[in-house]
Design a protein that fits this description.
This protein is an alpha/beta fold. It is built from nine helices and ten strands. It folds into two domains: 180 residues, no CATH class; 86 residues, no CATH class. The structure holds heme C.
């Protein structure tokens, strides 16, 4: 397992982002000196926007292709998925929380939080400035950026949309929901991202993207471990197939490969444009 994770990480992040940049830019990257690499070339807002795009794709893919399709195959996803007697995968929000937990344990000072004004879990209710700015996000869905004086972090908030029928039906039916009329396309919440510095070097930017990718791998691997330990439920076959094809779930590598195909192109373009 450990070896797998390392392999995946180096592939996902190093090969896809860094080498792609080196190969495509050819001499340019080689000519750049170390001090160039230390220069701060991205504003914190740009970097948080990049990682937020990666997150959108990861989250939508997980929600639609794993949870949505998996449920059609009879697979279970549960908020108590980590309890010993529950044999299920993580709900999308808990997948995101898994990513956030992994990032928090990493040396990268990146914060990630998913909140709402009508949360299923009251701990996810926006407070103070974030609650204020969330009102604006609901009006026009534009991201909001501010400096949080109290926590001393630059903060960016991005709309979290009801992008799949599963978001709406599950939230509306949840016993703890304070709101039962969510519709497809609604702004259900926002992802809040935080970082202490106002600008980042190329290396720091890659580190932020790496910590997100590693977070995805960590929580996805926990999900696969959970499946391996099923005692009473039918185990989906872990391989190169997806739930849409039957009782299958993709390996972490296959899952991340799709994320990368869908998300990284835009991110890579930004990284390369800045070089
Ligand atoms: C199968 C049920 C289910 C599905 C599907 C689902 N959610 Fe949730 N969602 C939950 C639960 C339960 C929580 C609370 C998790 C926790 O304890 O933090 C939650 C949390 C959230 C939160 C944080 C605020 C809150 O309500 O606690 C947002 C925002 C959110 N979900 C949006 C979405 C969106 C958007 C989708 C689809 C892309 C989605 N959810 C899909 C059950 C679901």
């Amino acid at each position: 397992m450990v070896k797998n994770i390392k392999l995946l990480l180096s592939e996902v992040v190093f090969l896809s982002v860094v080498s792609f940049t080196l190969v495509s830019c050819g001499g340019v990257a080689e000519e750049s000196t170390e001090s160039d690499a230390e220069e701060n070339i991205f504003s914190v807002d740009q970097v948080l926007e990049m990682v937020s795009k990666e997150n959108d794709v990861t989250r939508t893919l997980y929600t639609k292709a794993i949870v949505g399709q998996g449920k059609l195959q009879g697979m279970k996803f549960d908020e108590d998925w980590q309890k010993d007697d529950v044999e299920a995968g993580p709900l999308p929000a808990l997948f995101l929380r898994g990513v956030a937990t992994s990032i928090r344990r990493s040396p990268v000072p990146l914060g990630l939080y998913l909140g709402s004004d009508y949360p299923v879990n009251s701990a996810n209710k926006f407070q103070g400035k974030q609650a204020e700015l969330f009102e604006k996000i609901k009006e026009n869905q534009d991201p909001q950026y501010f400096y949080d004086e109290e926590q001393k972090v630059h903060t960016a908030m991005f709309a979290d949309l009801a992008s799949a029928g599963a978001c709406v039906s599950c939230h509306n039916a949840h016993p703890q929901t304070p709101k039962t009329d969510w519709k497809l396309g609604d702004v259900m919440g926002a992802t809040t991202w935080q970082y202490p510095k106002d600008s980042l070097s190329y290396g720091e930017t890659i580190a932020v993207l790496n910590s997100y990718a590693k977070g995805t791998i960590d929580i996805y691997m926990q999900y696969l471990d959970e499946i391996e330990n099923f005692k009473n439920s039918e185990k989906p076959i872990i391989g190169d197939k997806w739930p849409a094809e039957g009782n299958y779930v993709p390996t972490a590598e296959v899952f991340l490969d799709s994320v990368r195909k869908l998300a990284s192109y835009e991110t890579m373009n930004k990284l390369m444009a800045a070089k």
